[in-house]
Design goal:
By secondary structure, this protein is an all-alpha fold. Helix content is about 55%, strand content about 0%. The protein contains 11 helices and no strands. The longest helix is centred in the middle third of the chain and has 16 residues, at about 80-95. The two termini are about 15 Å apart.
Length: about 200
């Protein structure tokens, strides 16, 4: 099993498979052969970023109620930053530049975040327009939960997780957030069908 973003780092024609929107066509592409399963989302963290699971964790850790719909609204408020950060990573990989750490740009948003990224890349933000447009095309005219589910396929999962932790003011001990999210996803019956099918094939 390999992450979806591994396709983008590959210099072969399989790089274009990264941008395939149709799940069935993506599955059939098998860019690394029929013995290697390529995740449909950027990386494993993306499968944990379910609004219902995030809602559960916020309620448990902060003792305050927040619905999954409200979580989606919060995510939408930082969508531009998430898209921009993910486009930055793709640009770095495509141009063989050093990719900054997952916490790069922490505390920055909007115009300030763009300026930090421009300084790192030594280019104007317009140079990322191609990647940004392609990422946004996954959401098209979708709204709410459906929009997040679609965008979440081609956004950097670790950077999304870090941003959401800051946005919702969730504090974890080192690296324990994945365990909390995985438990919530499992208990709420939200394990992605793709992962279920993969596990079944192993047996």
């Amino acid at each position: 099993m390999v992450d979806r973003d591994s396709l983008f780092s590959d210099q072969s024609p399989s790089k274009e498979v990264f941008w395939e929107k149709d799940d069935e066509e993506f599955r059939k592409a098998q860019p690394f052969g029929d013995r290697v399963h390529v995740l449909r989302r950027w990386e494993i963290e993306n499968y944990l970023l379910k609004p219902e699971a995030i809602s559960k964790i916020v309620s448990d850790l902060q003792l305050r109620e927040i619905s999954s719909d409200e979580v989606v609204v919060e995510i939408a408020s930082i969508e531009d930053d998430l898209v921009f950060l993910s486009a930055m990573v793709l640009h770095c990989v495509a141009n063989k530049k050093v990719t900054p750490s997952d916490k790069f740009g922490s505390g920055k948003e909007g115009v300030d975040l763009k300026e930090v990224i421009e300084r790192h890349l030594c280019v104007q933000s317009e140079s990322l327009d191609g990647e940004i447009e392609k990422i946004r095309s996954f959401a098209e005219s979708k709204l709410g939960h459906e929009r997040w589910d679609s965008l979440n396929r081609v956004l950097d999962g670790k950077r999304c997780l870090n941003r959401l932790k800051d946005l919702l003011n969730i504090s974890f001990k080192k690296n324990e957030e994945r365990g909390f999210l995985a438990t919530a996803v499992k208990n709420l019956g939200l394990i992605d069908s793709e992962l279920k099918e993969f596990i079944q094939r192993l047996h």
